[in-house]
Design goal:
alpha+beta, three-stranded antiparallel sheet, 6 strands, 29% strand
Length: 167
């Protein structure tokens, strides 16, 4: 919340009676939304504050995040998450070219990381190939299992499937 909304919220909370509602959600596309509403009624005076924010979680992923995921020594959590994903799971396809810092010069770093971790990549491919929900998302985005270079989960349980369009 910005400073003005925070001050308005604090001012309204200091009055009585007060009603407050806060809601946080993440949609299937990875957009984090918050909606905070406060209403105050004192006799003939009433006031309300409503602050909404929305953040695309994929905007915070970087090429360095991808390299860390590809280079991870243990991909058990990624494989487990990919195996257990359902049609109701939030599955997000992230193209490598959309990541901050993914200039062509970084293509060599990704190629080196995938080559060095080919055994882990095979496990991730197998888990993605065996999951109908992930396959549906990949197909809808114009990709296949061979394009997948990493899978990450977030605190809300959403899957972020990195795909390299050059694959």
């Amino acid at each position: 919340m910005n400073r003005l909304s925070t001050l308005a919220l604090l001012a309204t909370l200091s009055l009585a009676p007060t009603a407050a509602l806060a809601q946080v959600s993440v949609d299937a596309g990875g957009t984090l939304s918050t909606d905070t509403s406060v209403g105050v009624s004192t006799g003939d005076t009433s006031a309300s504050v409503n602050a909404q924010t929305s953040t695309d979680a994929s905007a915070s992923l970087s090429f360095d995040d991808l390299l860390a995921d590809v280079s991870a020594a243990d991909v058990t959590a990624s494989v487990t998450a990919a195996t257990s994903a359902t049609a109701d799971s939030a599955i997000n396809i992230v193209e490598v070219s959309s990541l901050e810092g993914s200039a062509n010069a970084s293509a060599n770093a990704l190629a080196d990381a995938t080559t060095a971790n080919s055994a882990n990549l095979d496990k991730i491919h197998a888990a993605a190939a065996a999951n109908a929900a992930i396959q549906a998302k990949l197909t809808a985005a114009g990709h296949d299992t061979d394009d997948v270079v990493a899978i990450r989960t977030d605190a809300q349980g959403a899957l972020w499937v990195y795909v390299d369009e050059a694959e």
